[in-house]
Amino acid sequence: MIYKKTFGTPEPFVPTAFAPQPKIAVEEMPAEMAAKFGFSVSARGTKLTLPLGAKTEIYGFGLQLKEINHAGKKVTLRCNADPKAPSGDSHAPVPFLPRTRAGACTWIRPETPRSTAATKRTAA
Questions:
Q1: Res 113: pLDDT
Q2: Rounded Cα gap, residues 118 and 70, in angstroms
Q3: Is residue 45 included in any domain, yes or no?
Q4: Model pTM greater than 0.70?
Q5: Do 62 and 96 contact (CB within 8 A), yes or no?
Q6: Within a domain: residue 124?
Q7: Nearest to 36 by CA among 52, 55, 60, 57
Q8: What CA–CA distance (Å, rounded) separates 88 from 92?
Q9: Which of 8, 63, 109, 116 is the most buried (most CB within 10 A)?
Q10: What is the domain range of residue 6?
């Protein structure tokens, strides 16, 4: 099952607005599932928190050369041809997060060119 949840008010002209319709069903995320996500906007930017178990591992964020597992770390997705540290810099950043133990993947469609994700382990 693929669920969709929109946080905030998206801009009308983003690349995915012009994409073809999905070939598989996409449903609105049930309220009880959406309640587990956190979303806030401040002067510093937008923050989205995902529900993670104590042993959940997070992979993805595009081609990351310095780090594979991002659980418990803050990652800022931005283009950089020669990253020096595992901060999220990549020449191919992608906001796609496969998670272990959750049986789920998360695709974040940012409305700005830069996107930061912070992951924190919680009790299982």
A1: 47
A2: 9
A3: yes
A4: no
A5: yes
A6: no
A7: 52
A8: 10
A9: 116
A10: 2-118
Q: How many domains does the chain have?
A: 1
Per-residue pLDDT tens digits of the chain, which is 124 residues long: 788 888 777 777 777 778 888 888 888 888 998 888 888 888 877 777 777 777 878 777 777 777 778 777 777 777 777 777 777 777 777 777 777 766 667 777 665 544 455 555 555 4
Provide the Cα torsion 64, 83, 52, 98; round to 10°: -20
For residues 58 and 52, give the distance between their C-alpha atoms in angstroms, rounded to a whole number.
9
Radius of gyration of the chain (CA): 15
As given in the structure block, the two tokens for residue 8 are 């905030």
H or E, element range at 34 = helix 31-34
Query: Is 123 among the domain residues?
Result: no
